[in-house]
TrEMBL record:
Protein name as annotated: Riboflavin synthase
Organism whose genome encodes this protein: Companilactobacillus versmoldensis DSM 14857 = KCTC 3814
CDD domains (alphabetical): Riboflavin_synthase_like
The protein's role, per its UniProt record: Catalyzes the dismutation of two molecules of 6,7-dimethyl-8-ribityllumazine, resulting in the formation of riboflavin and 5-amino-6-(D-ribitylamino)uracil.
EC number(s) recorded for this UniProt protein: 2.5.1.9
Enzyme's top EC category: transferase
A GO molecular-function annotation: riboflavin synthase activity
Length: 201
C-alpha cells in the first residue's frame, strides 16, 4: 500500500534486460540513509516491485513481463530519473490517496502549459480507463497522487504546483512522454461492482 507521496527521486544506475523481463539498479538520493531491506515493497514510478538485493546507496528490483508490457519501466535508460515511494508503514500519515502500485496502463503527455504559479499537464488515455477518471477525483501519475483538474474527450488534465514539479519527475515531462497511470481504486470497486450487479439481475 502506498499514498502517492513521493519520498525520493532515484536514478537508474544499471539495467539488465532479458526478453520482456529485466532488473533495475536504482541509486537513491534523499532515502540513502533510510533502511531498505531485502523483500521490501517499493514503488518505482508508481509500480510496486520487490527489493531483491542491496547496492551502495540503493537497491535492485526485478520486473516480470506483465510489468514490461503495462508500465513505462521497460523504456527506461541508464541515467533516467524515477519517482520512489517506500511502502506505507502502519504509523505513517495517510496523505495523498490509496495507491496500490498496480499500474493500469500508460498515458501520453499531449500538452504542457504554464498557468501562473502552476503547470497544467494534459494526457491522452485509452477509452477503457476513462470511465474511472472524474473531475476532482484522484489519480496516480508515475506514482504521484494528484487531483484531476479537468476531463476531456480523449483523456484528462492535472495542475501541478512548483513543489510537485521540483520534488517529483513530473517536472521533467514533455509532450510525447509516456507515464504510468493508476486510477482510483475506490472508483474501480464502485463502478465494477455495479456492472457485476447488472449482469446478475
Amino acid at each position: 500500500m502506498f499514498t502517492g507521496i513521493i519520498k525520493d527521486i532515484g536514478t537508474v544506475n544499471e539495467i539488465t534486460p532479458k526478453g520482456e523481463t529485466f532488473q533495475l539498479a536504482i541509486k537513491l538520493n534523499n532515502l540513502k540513509n533510510k533502511k531498505i531491506a531485502l523483500g521490501d515493497s517499493i514503488a518505482i514510478n508508481g509500480t510496486c516491485l520487490t527489493v531483491i538485493s542491496l547496492i551502495e546507496q540503493g537497491f535492485k528490483v526485478e520486473a516480470m513481463p506483465e510489468t514490461f508490457r503495462r508500465t513505462n519501466l521497460g523504456s527506461l535508460q541508464v541515467g533516467d530519473h524515477v519517482n520512489i515511494e517506500p511502502a506505507l508503514a502502519v504509523n505513517d500519515k495517510l496523505d495523498g490517496h490509496f495507491v496500490l502500485g498496480h499500474v493500469d496502463t500508460t498515458a501520453e503527455v499531449t500538452n504542457v502549459v504554464s498557468d501562473q504559479n502552476s503547470v497544467v499537464l494534459s494526457f491522452e488515455l485509452e477509452p477503457k480507463y476513462r470511465r474511472y477518471i472524474v473531475e476532482k477525483g484522484s489519480v496516480a501519475i508515475d506514482g504521484v497522487s494528484l487531483t484531476v483538474s479537468g476531463v476531456t474527450d480523449t483523456g484528462f488534465q492535472v495542475s501541478l504546483i512548483p513543489f510537485t514539479l521540483q520534488e517529483t519527475i513530473l517536472g521533467e515531462l514533455k509532450t510525447g512522454n509516456q507515464v504510468n497511470i493508476e486510477t482510483d481504486i475506490l472508483g474501480k470497486y464502485i463502478l465494477d461492482s455495479k456492472v457485476e450487479e447488472y449482469q446478475h439481475d
